[in-house]
Amino acid sequence: MGRRRIWTLHLSLPAFGGENYLPLAVRPFTVSAAGSGADATKNAMNVESESGGSKADNGQRPDASPAPVVLRALGLRRSFGKVAAVDGLDLTVRAGEIYGFLGVNGAGKTTSIRMLMGIIKPEDGMIELLGERTRRTTIRQKQAIGYVSQEQTFYPWMTARGLGRFVGGFYPSWDAPEFERLLRVLDVPPDRKSSQLSGGMRVKLALALALASRPALLILDEPTSGLDPLARREFLDHIQQQARDHHRTTFFSSHIIEEIERVADRVGIIHHGRMRYEGDLKTLRATVRLVRFPPGAPRPPELPVLPTDAPPIIRHAQIPPPLPFFAASESSAAVAFAPPTGFDVLRDETRDGWRSLVLRAEPSAWAAFDLPGAEISDLSLEDIFIAMVRTGVMAI
Question: What is the Cα–Cα distance from 315 to 327, expressed in whole angstroms?
Fold first, then answer.
């Protein structure tokens, strides 16, 4: 294929519809006609996969081997002053899956995405996109990404169709008929000015702009924030349809657990800038469970008795080193739980005389788990998430 000269955004491709969409610095950039878009999608499927990785439900190939890696972060770090917003983040996104990036507000999700998009540069670490490693995402790599940010900011005088013509000039793989089709499917008025669109319509327009270049990877940074329940449901339905019909690899950031549970094949839970869990939801539910001891139940073996004025200990037994957690106790004596080998204690508290422990272990360890008087039950994703990230708990 020949090479051609196009004009592209210096800072923000393809962050159109977000904080850096304005063409403050526009410069010429030469790319191969086969360097992005539909061809990048083909390349994504040919990226060498690593062995032994997690397997997404819709990221499986017929031979059951892991799907190719489309996006990988290796030890990403970024601080603002003395605050470490992202602290050694590792993650892996495979072809065809919807990857749910879950964390509370301030966990480091947006900073991570800004680094993945090349909007800000990591202080340390590497990014691997479509088989190419870099310290900072390049313009060529950005042209293979569709991006929808938290806030949609468009030229107010432009219509939806006009924005499509404008943005299309920055993508060699832009598909104008597909953009028109997306506007119809998403029910976005093509000749209405962006300033006259509702919040939900603006998010749909941003999604149409992100998808019309047929990107190899779709990155969504809490796009449903502020949407009403109906608009949120419609948006999630479109994301699932894209994954199903077009094998669209999607990185979906959210703090809303219900959204992640609804659409994600695999999930990464980030807290304090570090990855606390990465894998599929089925495995997460099978490894984290609730163990309860009723009032008067025999004390499990090997549980030392602490001084009567000591609170129960709640350990966050993750790597990096656990954070201390504490809870008030109604019991006369505080007892620290010494977990069996292979078990981590995520939470330990006493309420109304019931001793409740949230433990994490491999399914094989749970199969052999036996404590007299213990009641073992499954947890919802919300309960598991809270156990992993909560910074304190008060007994009620």
Answer: 11
- Domain of residue 49, residue span: 3-272
Q: What is the DSSP letter of 120?
A: S
Domain assignment present for 395: no
Collapsed DSSP state (helix, strand, coil) of residue 224: coil
* Final residue of a structural domain among 240, 272, 304: 272
- If one counts every other C-beta atom within 10 angstroms of the C-beta of residue 46, the result is 11
Mark whether 263 and 348 lie in a shared domain. Answer: no
Q: Is residue 280 part of a domain?
A: no
Query: Phi/psi at 30 (nearest 5 deg)?
Result: -100, 130
What are 319-356's pLDDT values in tens digits?
333 333 223 334 434 456 677 788 888 888 887 778 88
Residues 220, 308, single domain; the answer is no
pLDDT tens for 173-219 read 999 999 999 999 889 999 999 999 988 899 999 999 999 999 999 99
What is the DSSP code string of 228-265? Answer: -HHHHHHHHHHHHHHHHHH--EEEEEES-HHHHHHH-S
Note the pTM of the prediction, 2 decimals: 0.75
Residue with tokens 């404008």: 166
Domain termination site, one of 218, 243, 272: 272
Domain co-membership, 210 together with 94: yes
Count H helices and E strands in the chain, helices first: 11, 18
Cα gap 121→190, rounded to integer Å: 36
